[in-house]
Structures are given as structure tokens and as C-alpha cells.
């Protein structure tokens, strides 16, 4: 890689973190108000979507989305997608109009400025800690009872092996979906790893393809069927990633 290209990617990457902070600073007074109580979460969610769209547009990304089904207002869903990049958060916020709550890794709460609001609005989990996982599960149950949707990246993290298309899914999202009898919404993110991976001197602006698949009904399912539900969701996303239908 040439020095000029490396320098350009470095500046572009730095610009990403600047873009993360600028909208937060501009909206700071309303964000503090909207994160002061859960009753303001729908208003906070609107701000979060603006923040996500500013970042994606400012980084030169454009979204190409196809949806087999569209979530209905005032209904709860379990949103599940493959996890490959920090863009996954922004992209999910951009494509979903109905408020949802992220279950995300605790480490992101340490990012300056962003982390403050992330800790106040998301369900944090330390995936290496059994107690933390249990507490996150219980908190997700509470938020579902408030008729929120939940978003989980069921791989549990980004695979270290770059050759892995989709890592094995954990059971938590599917157990929650069955317990609360809410539909699974499988979502495939095609280009996030290529456009903005966790390897620092990589990436470029361009298209971000998204496929929202047909929802998977959980009505009548029992907890013992969560693995079948998990495997079915995995197959849907994996097949789309191998053979894209979005171009």
C-alpha cells in the first residue's frame, strides 16, 4: 500500500470519529434530557437515527436496501444481523424507523462522549462474564415488557478469522423471542466489513447493501425449540451472504 493511500485512509478513519462526536455535541442539551428517563426513549431514538445518518453520509456511504417485510408500528421484534463492523450500529439505526434497544458489548461504553449515552440507553453485556450475561437477559426482558424491540448481533462479537462469513449464533436472542412470542427479523449486512472493518488502515466509501428477510414467527414455539429457531435464522442470513440478492 502506498504512503499516500495509507495517509488518505488514516485521515478518513479519523474523520469517522470526529463525525461520531460532532452531532452529539450539537444535540447535547436534548440528548441529556431524552436520556434522563426511559419515557423519552422514542425521542432519543430519533436523535440517534439523525446521528447515524450524518455519520454514514459524511463518510461517503450510501445504503441499498431490499425488504421482504417491513416492521409495523407499535409491535415488538427481535432484530438479528451479522456483525462485522462498527458501521453495524449506524446502519441498523438508519434502516429501522421503529424504536429498538441494542444489546451491545460493554467495551463500547468506554468511547469518549459516545460511550456516555451508549451506557444510558443500551443494555450492556460482558460476554465473558456469566453474571453480566444473565443481567443483560433480565434487562432485555424488562424492556420487551415495555413493548420495545430488541437488537442483538447473535454471533456475540466479530470473528477474528477474516475468512468466516458468519460465526455461530448464541441462543439468547432466540430464547427471548420465544419467551415473549415476538417475531425474529433476520437482516443481512453485505458490505460493512469491506467498507469499514476493525483493521485500521482499510476501507473506502461506497455502497452498503442490506437485506431484510421475511420475519420468522415464534407464536406457539416453546423454549426447547430455540436451537431450531437459531439454526433457521442462521441459514437465512448465511445463504444471503453467500449468494446476495441485493445488488
UniProtKB/TrEMBL annotation:
Name of the top EC class for this enzyme: transferase
Annotated pathway: Lipid metabolism; Phospholipid metabolism; CDP-diacylglycerol biosynthesis; CDP-diacylglycerol from sn-glycerol 3-phosphate: step 2/3
Enzyme Commission code: 2.3.1.51
Matching CDD domains: LPLAT_AGPAT-like
GO terms for biological process, alphabetical: phosphatidic acid biosynthetic process
Keyword Acyltransferase in annotation: yes
One function term, GO molecular function aspect: 1-acylglycerol-3-phosphate O-acyltransferase activity
Catalytic activity: a 1-acyl-sn-glycero-3-phosphate + an acyl-CoA = a 1,2-diacyl-sn-glycero-3-phosphate + CoA
Transmembrane feature ranges: 14-34
Record SMART domains: PlsC (SM00563)
Keywords: Acyltransferase, Lipid biosynthesis, Lipid metabolism, Membrane, Phospholipid biosynthesis, Phospholipid metabolism, Transferase, Transmembrane, Transmembrane helix
Domain Phospholipid/glycerol acyltransferase: 77-192
Origin superkingdom: Bacteria
Keyword Cytoplasm recorded: no
GO-annotated cellular components: membrane
Domain notes: The HXXXXD motif is essential for acyltransferase activity and may constitute the binding site for the phosphate moiety of the glycerol-3-phosphate.
Family as reported in the entry's similarity comment: Belongs to the 1-acyl-sn-glycerol-3-phosphate acyltransferase family.
Annotated protein name in UniProt: 1-acyl-sn-glycerol-3-phosphate acyltransferase
Species per Swiss-Prot/TrEMBL record: Christiangramia forsetii (strain DSM 17595 / CGMCC 1.15422 / KT0803) (Gramella forsetii)
Amino acid at each position: 500500500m502506498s504512503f499516500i493511500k495509507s495517509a488518505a485512509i488514516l485521515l478518513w478513519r479519523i474523520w469517522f470519529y470526529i463525525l461520531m462526536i460532532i452531532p452529539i455535541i450539537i444535540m447535547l442539551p436534548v440528548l441529556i434530557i431524552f436520556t434522563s428517563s426511559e419515557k423519552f426513549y422514542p425521542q432519543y431514538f430519533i436523535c440517534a437515527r439523525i446521528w447515524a445518518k450524518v455519520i454514514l453520509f459524511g463518510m461517503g456511504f450510501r445504503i441499498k436496501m431490499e425488504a421482504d417485510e417491513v416492521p409495523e408500528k407499535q409491535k415488538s421484534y427481535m432484530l438479528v444481523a451479522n456483525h462485522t463492523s462498527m458501521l453495524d450500529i449506524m446502519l441498523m439505526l438508519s434502516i429501522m424507523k421503529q424504536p429498538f434497544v441494542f444489546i451491545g458489548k460493554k467495551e463500547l461504553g468506554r468511547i469518549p462522549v459516545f460511550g456516555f449515552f451508549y451506557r444510558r440507553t443500551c443494555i450492556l453485556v460482558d460476554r465473558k462474564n456469566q453474571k453480566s450475561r444473565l443481567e443483560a437477559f433480565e434487562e432485555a426482558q424488562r424492556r420487551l415488557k415495555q413493548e420495545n424491540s430488541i437488537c442483538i448481533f447473535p454471533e456475540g462479537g466479530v470473528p477474528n478469522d477474516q475468512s468466516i462469513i458468519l460465526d455461530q449464533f448464541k441462543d439468547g436472542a432466540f430464547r427471548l423471542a420465544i419467551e415473549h412470542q415476538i417475531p425474529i427479523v433476520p437482516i443481512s449486512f453485505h458490505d460493512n466489513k469491506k467498507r469499514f472493518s476493525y483493521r485500521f488502515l482499510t476501507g473506502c466509501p461506497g455502497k452498503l447493501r442490506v437485506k431484510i428477510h421475511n420475519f420468522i414467527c415464534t407464536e406457539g414455539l416453546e423454549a426447547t425449540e430455540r436451537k431450531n429457531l437459531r439454526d433457521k435464522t442462521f441459514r437465512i442470513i448465511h445463504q444471503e451472504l453467500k449468494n446476495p440478492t441485493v445488488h
